[in-house]
Specification:
- It is a single chain.
- The chain is mainly alpha-helical.
- It is built from 18 helices and no strands.
- Helix 6 crosses helix 9 and helix 15 runs antiparallel to helix 18.
- The radius of gyration is 22 Å and the shape is globular.
Length: about 425
């Protein structure tokens, strides 16, 4: 297939992805689910798990091997831009007045699923053929643990905003915990990738390059971005261009040192100014990123998800184990830590429910692991199912808690004094 034909087929694939994603998102909204749920499901439907199973010829024609690298590159441009927005939102969260509770809940919400995930992998090692050959059990165990420890911070923030919960105790606490939680999880993922190389030189390059990148970002990048965003007379188009150059440079450098482009986008967003002009640049970038590029990323993830691989008793049991560990490790740990920190039961429970959602953030981590050769297709598919299940259950779970609280309040008011 020549380059002109490949390009034409890519555009056709993009049209199919965007249309299917929009249709599934509309259906998901009718069921009270956020758009990310519909996009995740749409990506899986277009992959070998459904379309490839029912109409393999059509699926192969729509997404031929030559188109997939283009889909990967284009979707990752959007992914870097999305992580830029996440980093900016992450840096804008304030944890004042919530320090003790937020630190206790975040620590429990990361360490418990991490330890349980590691224990699960050690338990199945040698019993279920799901780990990548040539990758140490330690790396595989850490990778599974880290992906189970991640929280969908952007989705969490969106749910809190849509439900007008920002002013509530559990809304503010969830945002603080989600920010701290994901910060720790991404650091752990970077460490895991560094260990996975099993090459002292590569580890030194990754570690040294990361330290250099962070140093330059805070000493040179942050002041430079602040200066650019404060220039009088600069148009939004010019500022978007400068921001794109910074993002692409960061993505190139972090990919080159083995840290992966998503970290570059996230860290640039973290040091990006918290000003009105900077927010205008974010607002100019975000709509196209969320509505066009992210669905392409979900489609690429769906093409790598093969639920058919899980239709054996051992792998079905492993998938169920991952889901159970994810829910108990995150929701259970956050709830118990919240209660231990002195939070009311209703607050601790809602924080646990919100922290339990993995969403897009886990998919990003899984794709990083897949590209690094840490995750096999079967392990990738099992953990994608964890991301979908924990994300889908969040909104109904919160609504059920709200209804139960309303009933209790009505009953209490109806009782005679």
């Amino acid at each position: 297939m020549d380059i002109a034909t490949t390009t034409a087929r890519f555009f056709l694939a993009a049209v199919i992805v965007l249309v299917v994603c929009r249709l599934v998102v509309m259906a998901a909204r009718r069921l009270g689910q956020p758009p990310v749920v519909g996009e995740m499901i749409a990506g899986v439907l277009l992959g070998p798990s459904l379309l490839g199973l029912v109409l393999p010829g059509v699926q192969g024609w729509l997404f031929p091997a030559a188109v997939r690298p283009m889909l990967y590159v284009v979707s990752h441009i959007g992914l870097v831009a999305f992580m830029f927005g996440v980093g900016h939102e992450f840096a804008g969260q304030k944890v004042r007045g919530l320090g003790r509770s937020a630190s206790m809940i975040s620590l429990a919400g990361v360490t418990t699923p991490l330890v349980m995930g590691v224990a699960l992998v050690l338990l199945i090692n040698g019993r279920i053929d799901v780990l990548a050959p040539g990758v140490s059990v330690t790396v595989s165990a850490l990778f599974v643990g880290v992906t189970l420890a991640i929280t969908a911070f952007p989705m969490l923030a969106r749910i809190i905003s849509e439900r007008n919960l920002s002013g509530t105790r559990y809304g503010s606490l969830s945002l603080a915990c989600g920010a701290i939680d994901d910060g720790m999880a991404w650091i752990l993922l970077a460490v895991t990738i560094g260990i996975a190389t099993n090459d002292p030189t590569k580890i030194l390059i990754t570690a040294g390059g990361s330290a250099l990148f962070i140093l330059l970002l805070f000493t040179v990048g942050r002041p430079a971005l602040a200066w650019l965003m404060s220039r009088e007379g600069a148009s939004t188009e010019q500022l978007v261009l400068f921001t794109a150059i910074a993002l692409f440079a960061a993505a190139w450098f972090t990919d080159t040192i083995g840290l992966y482009s998503v970290f570059g986008g996230f860290l640039v967003g973290f040091v990006f100014p918290q000003t009105t002009v900077a927010n205008r640049v974010i607002a100019a970038i975000s709509p196209v990123t969320r509505t066009v590029f992210l669905p392409l990323f979900f489609a690429f993830s769906g093409l790598n998800t093969q639920f058919g691989l899980l239709f054996t008793p051992p792998l079905m049991l492993l998938t169920l184990g991952c889901v159970v560990v994810a829910i108990i490790g995150k929701f259970g740990a956050c709830y118990i830590a919240g209660r231990a920190a002195g939070e009311e039961r209703t607050v601790a429970m809602r924080v646990g429910v919100l922290m339990n959602a993995r969403g897009l953030m886990q998919l990003i981590a899984l794709n990083v692991g897949l590209q690094a050769g840490i995750a096999t297709p079967a392990l990738f598919s099992a953990l994608v199912l964890v991301a979908i299940v924990t994300t889908v259950m969040t909104a109904p779970w919160l609504s059920w808690l709200d209804r139960r609280l309303e009933r209790r309040t009505e009953t209490a008011l109806a009782e005679p004094n």
